[in-house]
Amino acid sequence: MSEGTHRQGMSKHRLEALTDGIYAIALTLLVLELKLPDLPHEATDAELLERLVALWPKLGSWLVSFLFLSLLWTSNQRGFHYVKKVDQKLTSLNLWLLLFVSVMPFTASVLGEHGNLFVGAAIYSLNLLVLGVLGYLHVNYLVGHPELQEPLIAPATGRAMKVRVLGTVVCAALATLVAFWSPRGSALVYLLMIPVFLRSRTVQLRN
Fold first, then answer.
1. What is the DSSP letter of 148?
2. 7-16: per-residue pLDDT in tens?
């Protein structure tokens, strides 16, 4: 790459491909935690149902994690729609975001196994909180630098992009606070992400 090309900025496509790959791997690893304990061949329907019901903490952890990562990935893709080139700051923010995306399967596993304990719930909530904050910083930086955009992001679209990511930050922050009083109950806060997720699907890209 020539010096002039470097000054102008790098192509977004390699960073976008890396981002999609990390999200895809993380989303795949999440479901691997849903393992049914071994049952004897002579097991009854009641025993199987009991084992399935016992999986609900892991199922809840998987669902919340899938929704959260889906929200961030959707926001990221909408942002890349407007990216003409990436600079060092935007690349760094994206890589920091991917760092905490890649650890999500581990913290989700901790929540699924030990969500009744404060430490288990807090580790997971903090992971999501950091992801939400980094997602907001990523969007905020892109919106504030029109030289990186093509087409330019309209003010109303920029505000909508920020609000969607801030929804995940609020959910994670509330869950972290609730975990001090009720570790298992903090998981219920993440139900607020469902309307955020549904709302994000209805927002149309605007030039």
1. G
2. 455 678 999 9
Going by pLDDT thresholds of 50, 70 and 90, the confidence category of residue 2 is very low
Question: What burial letters (b/e) apply to 118-155, b meaning 16+ CB within 10 Å?
Answer: eebbbbbbbbbbbbbbbbbebbbbbbeeeebbeeebee
For 195, other C-beta atoms within 10 Å of its C-beta total: 10
In whole angstroms, give the CA distance from residue 26 to residue 13. Answer: 20
> What 3-state class would DSSP assign to 8?
helix
* Span 25-38, average pLDDT: 87
Please report which helix (H) or strand (E) contains residue 30, including its range.
Answer: helix 13-31
- Distance, in Å, from the CA atom of 44 to the CA atom of 124, rounded to the nearest integer, reads 35
What proportion of the chain, given as a percentage, has pLDDT over 70? Answer: 89
pLDDT of residue 145: 95
- Say which DSSP state 205 is in: P
- Which tens digits make up the pLDDT trace of 92-123? 999 999 999 999 999 999 999 999 999 999 99
Can you give 59-126 as a three-state secondary structure string? Answer: HHHHHHHHHHHHHHHHHHHHHHHCECCECHHHHHHHHHHHHHHHCHHHHHHHHHHHCCCHHHHHHHHH
Three-state DSSP string of 152-204:
CCCHHHHHHHHHHHHHHHHHHHHHHHHHCCCCCCHHHHHHHHHHHHHHHHHCC
Euclidean distance between CA atoms 119 and 125, whole angstroms:
10
